Amino acid sequence: MSRIDSFLKLGLAQGCSDVHLAVGVPPMLRMSGDLMPIKFRDLSGTELESYVSEILTQNQQSKFSDGRDLDFSYVTDDGSRFRVNLYRKATGLGATFRYIPAEIPNLEKLGLPDVVRGLTDYHQGMILVTGATGTGKSTTLASMLDHINTHKSMNIISLEDPIEFVHPSKKAQVIQRELGTHIVSFADGLRAALREDPDVILVGEMRDAETISMAMTAAETGHLVLGTLHTTGAVKSIDRIIDALPSDLREQTKSFLSTNLNAVVSQLLCKTADLRGRKAILEIMIMTRAIGKLISTEQSHQIPSQLQTGRHLGMQQMDQALLDAVQRKEIDPNDAYAYANDKQPFLRFVTDSDLAPALAADQGTVTS
Questions:
Q1: What percent of the chain has pLDDT over 90?
Q2: Which of 46, 142, 238, 274 has its CA 20 to 30 A from that of 199?
Q3: How far apart are alpha carbons 264 and 245 in whole angstroms?
Q4: Cβ–Cβ < 8 Å for 70, 58
């Protein structure tokens, strides 16, 4: 057993989502959103290098020695699976291990709105799941993919960096390909996928113009494309797509989005009311004729008003979703207050006295 497994086993026993190892500090666990050190000495560079070297392949070791960060999957001796990011920083080596459950949680278990399940019924176009790092995008996408895999006879091609949840083929055929292992880039993977008779293509990260352009081509040619962006909110996600492509393709990109973008799901993770876990809170935009017109006429800043009036279609703004969850006593009101854009509606629910200065400022803004 690799020595690093002991830290990972301890983290899982505590119910953490991530294990952080870095030179100069003790190992740390991400517990319900908070980073907590374990009782252990500060890790030295030599010590951590020796731990990490035990789990790297020769090829991975060579890449890391060349100065590149590494993203890869690691499975412990007892079968626990982790997504690993290995990096170097000012004081030395660092590594983050994200636990990937063996069982893919279904959409109902995640407590996601019913409209998310409905998105899996689309046969073509693009669906974006967005949010900051660590907000559960991969889990939501995995649940959506598993729902399709369970209920539809389709060919699903997943392009990931690295492969996280493992999808055994059920009613569908699932082909999972990993960046650096099976494909050189997401764009190359998409280009190849179009020759592999896909029905559904998952793009782990739409991180550059070439990947976004290839994903748009796939969505336009009769495939359902699921992708992620590191953006917050529907408006910023749409603007990110438009700004990522060359200016001479701006009109073409707006036309694509207004006709082929099915939905944007933007999420964050809030602490639950009992502070023992975290719950995904979603902003949801479903494409309508009105939203399509706003995109094509570069008035995307008016989309939030469409989310408000489109609740009967399953649309919701992030602030409203947060407030609804607070009122249902599903999430911690202090956490919701911290995430909200318009904080005033949350003032009466806040209980944390440490927020008093910020509360006073908000109340002064409201009354002035």
A1: 91
A2: 238
A3: 19
A4: no
Alpha helices in the chain (DSSP H): 4-14, 45-53, 58-65, 107-110, 114-119, 137-151, 186-193, 209-220, 234-244, 250-260, 289-296, 303-309, 318-327, 333-339, 356-367
Crossing angle between the packed helical segments 250-260 and 209-220, to the nearest 10 degrees: 50
Q: What is the pLDDT of residues 32-66, one digit of tens each?
A: 889 999 999 999 999 999 999 999 999 899 989 88
Cα–Cα distance for residue pair 84/276, rounded to 1 Å: 24
The residue type of 101 is P
**Segment 158-185, tens digit of pLDDT:** 999 999 999 999 999 999 999 988 999 9
pLDDT score at 45:
95
367 pLDDT band (50/70/90 cuts)?
A: very low
- The string of DSSP codes covering 1-43 is --THHHHHHHHHHHT-SEEEEEBTS--EEEETTEEEE-SSPPB
| Block residue for tokens 């991969």 | 138
pLDDT of residue 358: 65
